[in-house]
From TrEMBL:
Protein keywords: Methyltransferase, Transferase
Protein name: Methyltransferase type 12
Single GO BP term: methylation
SUPFAM superfamilies associated with the record: S-adenosyl-L-methionine-dependent methyltransferases
Length: 198
């Protein structure tokens, strides 16, 4: 890693720690995700995916990975609740559409801002730390926005999918673990979440 990259990473870790101290439940991590996790989260996503939504981008680790997989800037919509992270993201990615709002409203923003239905949603949200109601609202909005067969990609620091069982059953969700990495602080697993066709 180059000197400027190292300095940026150190700055992002300090920002994250400050954000976590201010709102531990909304951030639910003391450091940004690493590059290995970013690669796993974006595996299988590319220009052919069409529009993509990223939820809870934080300092933009997954955003960078999505752009390096050649997702077109006009096909990428970021939704971040923290105004401090939103300002930082707008400086870093001036070509992207970045909304400061709750992920619960993602279907409204998708309809208003994207050129078509998303083929994937990449989530950095702390789903595990969220209430059952928040999970239900976010996943309902996600699967109403996603095109049929679209996937919701989520990481977790736990060993099981980070969604309440009743919520998953009610929405007819299927979870596939698509990767794990020890090279992240803490180690993480990635799940592809799809709706079982009825
Ligand atoms: C664990 S951090 C992940 C940040 C980044 N994706 C990463 O992996 O380094 C969680 C992020 O989700 C954001 N967030 C939490 N709840 C949210 C919500 N309801 N809607 C949108 N963003 C939310 C936080 O502000 C934070 O940026």
């Amino acid at each position: 890693m180059s000197g400027p990259e190292q300095a940026m990473q150190a700055g992002d870790t300090a920002r994250f720690l400050r954000a976590w101290l201010a709102d531990p439940l909304a951030i639910a991590a003391v450091a940004p995700s690493g590059r290995t996790l970013a690669r796993l989260m974006t595996a299988g996503i590319g220009p052919e995916t069409g529009p993509v939504i990223e939820l809870g981008p934080g300092t933009g680790v997954f955003t960078r990975a999505l752009l390096s997989r050649r997702v077109a800037p006009e096909n990428l919509l970021l939704i971040e609740r923290s105004s401090a992270f939103t300002l930082l993201l707008r400086e870093r990615f001036p070509d992207l559409d970045i909304v400061c709002d709750l992920a619960q409203r993602l279907d409204h923003h998708a309809r208003a801002r994207l050129p078509g239905s998303p083929g994937a949603i990449v989530s950095g949200l702390p789903l595990l730390a969220m209430s059952r109601l928040d999970q239900q609202e976010i996943l309902t909005a996600a699967f109403s926005a996603l095109r049929p067969g679209g996937t919701f990609v989520q990481f977790t620091y736990g060993h099981v999918p980070p969604v309440d069982k009743a919520v998953a059953r009610g929405l007819g969700l299927r979870f596939d673990c698509i990767g794990r990495t020890l090279r992240n602080l803490p180690p993480a697993s990635v799940y592809s979440i799809r709706r079982i066709p009825t």
